[in-house]
Design goal:
Blueprint (H helix, E strand, L loop, with lengths): L6 H11 L2 E7 L14 E7 L1 E2 L5 E6 L3 H8 L2 E7 L12 E10 L3 H10 L12 E14 L5 E5 H4 L7 H17 L1 H11 L8 E6 L2 E6 L2 E6 L7 H20 L3
Helix pairs in contact: 5-6, 6-7
Length: 252
């Protein structure tokens, strides 16, 4: 029987796997029809990417209600719902991340978000759109009946102090895999992750795994060990490719 993962690992894997979340902010009530609702909670759907350490990254319009709310009070909650496809959703995992959202000019974070959500490039450069980074304070994981955990910031976030070399080479690795090893990405997606079709593309790589996208579908492949640079990433990518090829040739 496989050993149960620590709550923080389960939470971070869920965080990295999903590309959208429900964003809760506090209504500023400065203008419009919400003036009499100041202080009420307000929930909206947002697209999300995740930085190497697990910090959520957002792209928001200044015209959106949630952006005006964040300008007045940066405290937010993000609900990541991993219950899709279950007959009883309450048996599936979901994670609430509490933190403070602030505008970010980080070029690598921008690249990770646009890699995860290429359609966003159409409006990411507009003057009334801005990237945000959520500084995590705490998280609450419900991983099914009877498994409920509060997770401290230092446990949820991944320590990237020894993996800076990977971050520096991320764009090169992603470009190389998509240009020269598209067949390997398809094999990993279909044979190891159980996804259909071909044309999968890598959108980002981090110390714990890498992200894939095919049209509107996303997938996540976890490494067997932490990678901190391009060479160790190559080793894990080769291992996963060999494992996928072995499965594709195994007798039924």
């Amino acid at each position: 029987m496989p050993q149960e993962l620590p709550a923080a690992t389960t939470a971070r894997r869920l965080l990295r796997r999903l590309d959208r979340a429900a964003l809760a902010t506090r209504l500023a009530g400065a203008d419009g029809q919400g003036a009499d609702l100041q202080g009420w909670p307000y929930a909206s759907l947002v697209l999300v990417a995740v930085d190497h350490d697990g910090s959520p990254l957002l792209l928001l319009s200044d015209l959106a209600e949630h952006s005006r709310n964040i300008a007045a009070d940066g405290r937010v909650a993000l609900l990541f719902d991993g219950t899709a496809g279950r007959t009883d959703p309450l048996t599936g995992p979901r994670l609430t991340v509490l933190g403070r959202a602030a505008r970010s000019e980080d070029a690598r974070g921008r690249a990770r978000f646009l890699g995860r959500h290429p359609g966003s490039a159409l409006y990411a450069g507009f003057a009334d759109f801005a990237f945000y980074r959520v500084a995590v304070e705490r998280a609450h994981l419900v991983a099914g009946f009877g498994r409920i955990d509060w997770i401290a910031r230092e446990d949820l976030l991944f320590d990237t102090s020894a993996t800076g070399a990977l971050a520096e080479r991320e764009a090169d690795i992603v470009a190389h895999m998509n240009a020269d090893h598209a067949d390997a990405l398809d094999l990993i997606a279909t044979r190891l992750l159980g996804r259909g079709g071909d044309g999968w593309r890598m959108t980002g790589i981090d110390p714990e795994g890498f992200d894939l996208r095919r049209e509107g579908e996303v997938a996540r492949a976890e490494f067997g060990t932490v990678v901190g640079d391009a060479e160790s990433a190559r080793t894990e990518l080769v291992r996963l490719t060999r494992e996928a090829r072995a499965r594709s040739t195994a007798p039924a």
